[in-house]
Design brief:
The protein is an alpha+beta fold. The protein has a domain at 10-69. The chain is 17% helix and 33% strand. It contains 1 helix and 3 strands, in the order βαββ. The protein has one helix at 25-39; strands spanning 10-15, 42-53, 59-69. Strands 1-3-2 form a 3-stranded antiparallel sheet, with helices on one face. A hairpin with a 5-residue loop joins strand 2 (42-53) and strand 3 (59-69). The longest helix is centred in the middle third of the chain and has 15 residues, at 25-39. Residues 1-22 are annotated as: Disordered.
């Protein structure tokens, strides 16, 4: 039997708040950059941009970031019953 893969990849998806400016890609990139900086020492593996069209026909892009922590001091798992912090 082969040894199971034990690596873990983290990710988050972020978009602009709904409303005026929700379609601004430059604003979205700034928000994602701020979140990446706030996460600390990480290695980003991939960024994927998605675009949703709202009911009124407006673009609403989002970016999913796939990353891993570069140090052993990564945050502990959430305790059972606790919600992870929201990323908006």
């Amino acid at each position: 039997m082969t040894k199971p893969i034990t690596n873990q990849m983290h990710h988050f998806t972020q978009n602009n708040p709904e409303g005026i400016g929700q379609d601004s890609v430059p604003a979205l990139l700034r928000r994602v950059a701020t979140t990446i900086e706030e996460l600390g020492a990480i290695e980003v593996y991939d960024l994927i941009m998605h675009n949703e069209i709202t009911d009124d026909g407006t673009d609403w892009p989002s970016i999913t970031v796939y990353f891993d922590y570069t140090h052993a001091d990564e945050p502990a798992e959430d305790a059972p019953g606790e919600d992870a912090p929201a990323v908006t």
